[in-house]
C-alpha cells in the first residue's frame, strides 16, 4: 500500500533561485565559449522566466512543446559535435554541460529534476578550474557553492526569508571549510591521469617558439589563424606583448646573480634557409660523448617552477652544471636541458649553474652545422663580412668589429620594426636597421658564419623581475630573448649578445624599461609618481600572493604534499600515516561540529539573559561580582547596599528582569533601556 | 575525566529516544557526484578540483550534523486521542517542545500502514510508512500543539502503534528520524450514515426529568471537543491553559425522549449498515437536544442525555460483536 509516492514539485521560489544560481555559474564560461552557447543558455532561461512571469507553457504542459524541446536539445548536441569534433574534450564537454543544464531547467517538474539540475550546477562549478585556477575563481567557487547549497535548502523549506536561507547555507559552507582544508592537505594525492587527457586539457597562453622567422610581423589580433601562420606566430616580438608567466625562480639564500648574467637558456637554433631558423632534429641532438664543460668560480643554486608549455624544454641559467633529480632530464649536444616528457603541468626542479664556463673548448661535433649558410643568399652581408675580415687580425677582432658596426651605424632597438621583404638579413643590415633581439642575433650569426666562425642562435629569456615581497624572480613571456654563441678554438662556445651592442638597456635593465609606460602601470596614474609607486607595491604584494598560491595550492600534488608534510615534521610521510592523521583530524572536526550544533544551553543566547549579564558585568567592574549561587534578588540587595547612590536604579532593573524573564511580561524594552542607562561608578 | 563522564550522563539523560540518520536518495547521488568529481580532478591533476570535491564532502558532513540536530533538539508530549468516527481521522494531540535556540523545521510524521510482512531487505519497512502530517516550523524556545490526523481503519478499538517522525531539512541529502511509540488504543465509532427516518420521539411520562438540554441559551459548562462542534464555541482560553480542546456547552430546557432500537434497523441486511444507521440517529438526537436510549440485542442503555451518555451509546455500537 502507498508504495508509489506522489511527485513532489519544488516551489517556484526554489526554481527561481536555481535559475539565478546557474546563470551566475555559467557566465564565466560565456567568455571562453562560442556565442551560441550563451544564446541557447539564455534562451532556455528566458523561456522559464516567461513561464513564471507571463504563464508561457512549458514542455511538460503540451506535447508539441515537449517534442520541440527534445529536438532542440538533440540539435544542440549535434551542434556541439559539429563545432568541436567527435571526441569530447574539455571545451566540448563544458559547452555540452552548460547547454544541457539550461535545457533541464525548462523541464524541471519534480524534486528529482530539481536535484539533478543542482548537481549539474556543481559540475559546472568544477569546470571553471579547467580554464582558470586563480584566487578570484576560488572565491567565486565558494560563492557558487553557497548559492547551490541555498538552492538545496530552498527546495526543502521556503518559510524563512531568502536572506535567512543564504545565511544558513553560508554557515554550512563555512563549517565545511575545516574538513575541506584537512582533506586537501592530507588526502593522499595520486598523480594523474588515470584514463588520459583530451588534447585541449591544457591552456597554454604563450610560449617560446621552436623556430624563428624574420619577416613580416602580423598584427597580434589578426583574425586569420591556421596552419600557415604558425611559423610567423613564432616571432619572439609577439611574446613581448604577453605578461604571462614563463617560470619563477627562487635562488638559494636569495643571492641573485647580476642582471647582465640572467640568461635563461632554451632551444638552440642552427639550420637556416635565410629566413627561418630551426633547431637540430632529435637524432642529431643526441649526445654521443659527454660535453666538455670546464667551470671556474662559484655556482649558483636555485629552483625553478616552470609553467606548462607542452614542450620538453627546461630553462636553466646559462650554464647548468647540476641537473634536476626530481624528473628525468637530459642535456643535449648543444646544451639544451630537456625533460623526457612534454611539460603538461606546472613542475618544479632544482639545479645549479656556473656563470664562468668553457663549453667544448677543444672540439665540437657540430661545427659544420655552425658554418652552413644557404647558397646565394645575403650577398651584401657576405661582402660586408669579407671587408671586415680583411681589416681584422683575429677572430676576436672580427667579432669586435661586427659589434662596432652595430654600434656605429645607425642601428636602433625597436619592438615594432618595419616589415622585412626579400632577403631579410640584407634588408635589415643595410636598409631598415630597426629591430629587436631576433634580428640582431640572426644577422650577427650570418656575419659570423660568412667569416668562417661557427655560430648558433640560442633562444630563451633574459632578465626577469624580482619581487621584493617574496624574493622570487618571475620571468614572463615578454622577457623572451635570442642571442648568439660563437665557437672559438680553445675557448669553446662563447655567448655574445649583439642586441646589447645596440641597446645596453635591454640587458642592463630588462625589457620592462623598453615597454610603453602604460604596460607598467595604468595610464590614468602614469603621471603621478607616488601613485605609480603605490600601485607597484600593491602589484608586488598581489604577485607574491599569486606565486605562493600557484606553488602551494594550484600545483599541490603528490611531490608537493610529501614536501609539505616533511616540513610540518612528519617523518617519512606515506599514505598510511596520512590516513591515520586524516582519521584523527576528521574525528576532531566531527566532534567540533557536533558540539557547535548540539551545544546545550550553556551559552545563553536569550536576549534578556544577555542584557542581564551586561548589567552584572557593569557591577563586576566595581568589584560587585555575582556569585554563581546567588539569585537575582539577593544580588540586587547586595548591590544596593554597596552602591546606595544607585539603589533605585538597581531595584528597577532587577524588578524588570524578573518580570520579563520569569513572568513573561512585555517589559523587555524597558529592561533593555534601563540597563543601557545604568552607568554606575563609586 | 570525571567531567567527561558528567557530560556523558547529562547527554544520556537527554536521550529520550534514539535518532537515526541515513543518506536519502539524493544524498546517495550527491556522494556519487563527489566521487566522479574527485576522479576527474585526479585525472586532470587539477588541485582546485580536489578542493571543490573536498568542500562538497565538508558540506555533506555539516549537513549530516544539521539534519541530526534538527530532529535531535525536538522533544514532545503526547496527549490522549479522542474517539473518532470511522472514515474520519483520529486526532492525536502532540505538543512539540523546542527548547533549543534554533528553530526546528520541516518535520514529517508517518505511520506504519501495514505492520506485517517482514522482509530481508533492511529498509524495506520504510516504504510502508505513510507520511500524513507536516509541521513546517517549531520556533526556537517554543512549544506548539498539533493534532495529528491519523486515519481510522474500522470500528472498534484501534491500536495506535508507532509513528515515525522524520526530517530531511536542511538540504534533503540526509534523512533523520526517530520513532514514537504511542501505546494508546482509541475507540472508533461506526460511521454515522444512513437514510432511514428516525423513529418519532414520544413525550416523557413524568414530565419532570428533562430540565437541561443542550442548546444555545445559557452557558452550562464544557465538554471535550468533538468533530462537528461549532468553532465559535471552542474554549480557546482553556486550550491555551492546558492544551485540551473543549467546547462550551449551553442548555435550553425543552425536549422529548426517544428509544433507538435494534429492531428499527432490522430491515437493513448488513450489520455495519445497521450500526451506521444507529450511529447517525444518535448524533441527530444528540444534536436536537433529545433524550434518548439504545436497545441492542445484548444490552440496553437507559434514556439519558449528555456527552457521557452519547459516548456510552456509540461505544456500544463500536464494540458490537466483539
TrEMBL record, chain A:
One of its GO terms (molecular function) is protein-glutamine gamma-glutamyltransferase activity. The keyword Magnesium does not apply. Keywords: Acyltransferase, Membrane, Transferase, Transmembrane, Transmembrane helix. It holds the Pfam family Transglut_core. It is an enzyme of class 2 (transferase). Residues 429-500 form the Transglutaminase-like domain. Its EC number is 2.3.2.13. It comes from the Bacteria. SUPFAM superfamilies: Cysteine proteinases. The chain crosses the membrane at residues 15-43, 64-82, 113-131, 137-156, 168-187, 578-598. SMART domains: TGc. This is Protein-glutamine gamma-glutamyltransferase. It comes from Methylophaga muralis.
TrEMBL record, chain B:
It comes from the Bacteria. Keywords: Membrane, Transmembrane, Transmembrane helix. The chain crosses the membrane at residues 20-42. PANTHER family: SLR1927 PROTEIN (PTHR34351:SF1), SLR1927 PROTEIN-RELATED (PTHR34351). This is Uncharacterized protein.
Amino acid at each position: 500500500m502507498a508504495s508509489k509516492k506522489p511527485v513532489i514539485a519544488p516551489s517556484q521560489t526554489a526554481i527561481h533561485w536555481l535559475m539565478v544560481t546557474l546563470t551566475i555559474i555559467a557566465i564565466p564560461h560565456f567568455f571562453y565559449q562560442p556565442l551560441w552557447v550563451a544564446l541557447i543558455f539564455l534562451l532556455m532561461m528566458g523561456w522559464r522566466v516567461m513561464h513564471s512571469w507571463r504563464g508561457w507553457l512549458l514542455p511538460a504542459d503540451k506535447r508539441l512543446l515537449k517534442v520541440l524541446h527534445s529536438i532542440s536539445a538533440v540539435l544542440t548536441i549535434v551542434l556541439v559535435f559539429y563545432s568541436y569534433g567527435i571526441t569530447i574534450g574539455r571545451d566540448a564537454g563544458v559547452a555540452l554541460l552548460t547547454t544541457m543544464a539550461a535545457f533541464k531547467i525548462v523541464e524541471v517538474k519534480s524534486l528529482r529534476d530539481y536535484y539533478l539540475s543542482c548537481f549539474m550546477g556543481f559540475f559546472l562549478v568544477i569546470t571553471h578550474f579547467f580554464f582558470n585556477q586563480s584566487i578570484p575563481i576560488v572565491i567565486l567557487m565558494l560563492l557558487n557553492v553557497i548559492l547551490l547549497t541555498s538552492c538545496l535548502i530552498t527546495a526543502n523549506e521556503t518559510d524563512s526569508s531568502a536572506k535567512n536561507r543564504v545565511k544558513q547555507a553560508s554557515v554550512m559552507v563555512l563549517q565545511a571549510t575545516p574538513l575541506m582544508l584537512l582533506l586537501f592537505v592530507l588526502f593522499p594525492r595520486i598523480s594523474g591521469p588515470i584514463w588520459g587527457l583530451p588534447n585541449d586539457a591544457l591552456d597554454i597562453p604563450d610560449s617560446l617558439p621552436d623556430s624563428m622567422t624574420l619577416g613580416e610581423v602580423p598584427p597580434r589580433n589578426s583574425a586569420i589563424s591556421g596552419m600557415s601562420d604558425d611559423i610567423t606566430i613564432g616571432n619572439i616580438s609577439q611574446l613581448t606583448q604577453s605578461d604571462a608567466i614563463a617560470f619563477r625562480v627562487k635562488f638559494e639564500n636569495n643571492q641573485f646573480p647580476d642582471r647582465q648574467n640572467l640568461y635563461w637558456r632554451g632551444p638552440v637554433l642552427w639550420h637556416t634557409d635565410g629566413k627561418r631558423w630551426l633547431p637540430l632534429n632529435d637524432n642529431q641532438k643526441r649526445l654521443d660523448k659527454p660535453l666538455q664543460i670546464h667551470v671556474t668560480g662559484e655556482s649558483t643554486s636555485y629552483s625553478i617552477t616552470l609553467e606548462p608549455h607542452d614542450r620538453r624544454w627546461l630553462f636553466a641559467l646559462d650554464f647548468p652544471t647540476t641537473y634536476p633529480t626530481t624528473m628525468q632530464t637530459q642535456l643535449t649536444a648543444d646544451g639544451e636541458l630537456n625533460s623526457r616528457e612534454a611539460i603538461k603541468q606546472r613542475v618544479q626542479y632544482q639545479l645549479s649553474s656556473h656563470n664562468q664556463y668553457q663549453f667544448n673548448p677543444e672540439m665540437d661535433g657540430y661545427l659544420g652545422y655552425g658554418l652552413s649558410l644557404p647558397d646565394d643568399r645575403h650577398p651584401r652581408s657576405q661582402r660586408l663580412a669579407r671587408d671586415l675580415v680583411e681589416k681584422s687580425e683575429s677572430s676576436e677582432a672580427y667579432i669586435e668589429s661586427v659589434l662596432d658596426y652595430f654600434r656605429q651605424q645607425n642601428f636602433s632597438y625597436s619592438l615594432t620594426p618595419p616589415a622585412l621583404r626579400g632577403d631579410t638579413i640584407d634588408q635589415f643590415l643595410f636598409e631598415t636597421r630597426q629591430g629587436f633581439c631576433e634580428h640582431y642575433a640572426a644577422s650577427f650569426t650570418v656575419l659570423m658564419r660568412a667569416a668562417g666562425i661557427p655560430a648558433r642562435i640560442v633562444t630563451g629569456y633574459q632578465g626577469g623581475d624580482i619581487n621584493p615581497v617574496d624574493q622570487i624572480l618571475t620571468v614572463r613571456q615578454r622577457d623572451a630573448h635570442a642571442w648568439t654563441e660563437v665557437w672559438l678554438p680553445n675557448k669553446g662556445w662563447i655567448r655574445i649578445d649583439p642586441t646589447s651592442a645596440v641597446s645596453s638597456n635591454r640587458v642592463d635593465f630588462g625589457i620592462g624599461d623598453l615597454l610603453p609606460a602604460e604596460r607598467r602601470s595604468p595610464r590614468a596614474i602614469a603621471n603621478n609618481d607616488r601613485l605609480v609607486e603605490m600601485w607597484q607595491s600593491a602589484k608586488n604584494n598581489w604577485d607574491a600572493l599569486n606565486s605562493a598560491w600557484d606553488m602551494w595550492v594550484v600545483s599541490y600534488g603528490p611531490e608537493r604534499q610529501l614536501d609539505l608534510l616533511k616540513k610540518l615534521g612528519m617523518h617519512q610521510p606515506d599514505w598510511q600515516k596520512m590516513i591515520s592523521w586524516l582519521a584523527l583530524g576528521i574525528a576532531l572536526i566531527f566532534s567540533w561540529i557536533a558540539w557547535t550544533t548540539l551545544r546545550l544551553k550553556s551559552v545563553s543566547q536569550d536576549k534578556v539573559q544577555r542584557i542581564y549579564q551586561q548589567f552584572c558585568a557593569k557591577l563586576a567592574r566595581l568589584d560587585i561580582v555575582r556569585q554563581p549561587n546567588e539569585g537575582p534578588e539577593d544580588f540586587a540587595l547586595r548591590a544596593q547596599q554597596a552602591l546606595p547612590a544607585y539603589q533605585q536604579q538597581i531595584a528597577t532593573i532587577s524588578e524588570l528582569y524578573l518580570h520579563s524573564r520569569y513572568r513573561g511580561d512585555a517589559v523587555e524594552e524597558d529592561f533593555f533601556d534601563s540597563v543601557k542607562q545604568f552607568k554606575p561608578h563609586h | 575525566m570525571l567531567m567527561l563522564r558528567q557530560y556523558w550522563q547529562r547527554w544520556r539523560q537527554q536521550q529520550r529516544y534514539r535518532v537515526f540518520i541515513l543518506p536519502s536518495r539524493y544524498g546517495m547521488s550527491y556522494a556519487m557526484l563527489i566521487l566522479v568529481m574527485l576522479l576527474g580532478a585526479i585525472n586532470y591533476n587539477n588541485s582546485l578540483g580536489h578542493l571543490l570535491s573536498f568542500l562538497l564532502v565538508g558540506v555533506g558532513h555539516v549537513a549530516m550534523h544539521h539534519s541530526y540536530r534538527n530532529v535531535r533538539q525536538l522533544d514532545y508530549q503526547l496527549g490522549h486521542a479522542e474517539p473518532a468516527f470511522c472514515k474520519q481521522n483520529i486526532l492525536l494531540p502532540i505538543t512539540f517542545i523546542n527548547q533549543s535556540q534554533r528553530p526546528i523545521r520541516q518535520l514529517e510524521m508517518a505511520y506504519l500502514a501495514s505492520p506485517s510482512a517482514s522482509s530481508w531487505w533492511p529498509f524495506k519497512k520504510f516504504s510502508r510508512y505513510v507520511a500524513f502530517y507536516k509541521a513546517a516550523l517549531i520556533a526556537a524556545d517554543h512549544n506548539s500543539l498539533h493534532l495529528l490526523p491519523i486515519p481510522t481503519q474500522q470500528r472498534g478499538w484501534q491500536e495506535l502503534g508507532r509513528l515515525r517522525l522524520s526530517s530531511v531539512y536542511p538540504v534533503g541529502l540526509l534523512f533523520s528520524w526517530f520513532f514514537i511509540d504511542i501505546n494508546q488504543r482509541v475507540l472508533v465509532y461506526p460511521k454515522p450514515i444512513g437514510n432511514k427516518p428516525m423513529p418519532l420521539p414520544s413525550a416523557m411520562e413524568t414530565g419532570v426529568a428533562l430540565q437541561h438540554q443542550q442548546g444555545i441559551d445559557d452557558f452550562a459548562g464544557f465538554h471535550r471537543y468533538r468533530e462537528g462542534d461549532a468553532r465559535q464555541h471552542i474554549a480557546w482560553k482553556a486550550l491555551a491553559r492546558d492544551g485540551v480542546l473543549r467546547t462550551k456547552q449551553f442548555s435550553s430546557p425543552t425536549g422529548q425522549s426517544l428509544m433507538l432500537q435494534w429492531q428499527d434497523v432490522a430491515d437493513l441486511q448488513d450489520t455495519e449498515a445497521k450500526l451506521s444507521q444507529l450511529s447517525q440517529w444518535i448524533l441527530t438526537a444528540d444534536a436536537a437536544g433529545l433524550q434518548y436510549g439504545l436497545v441492542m440485542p445484548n444490552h440496553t442503555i437507559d434514556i439519558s442525555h449528555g456527552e457521557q451518555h452519547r459516548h456510552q451509546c456509540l461505544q456500544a455500537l463500536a464494540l458490537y460483536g466483539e
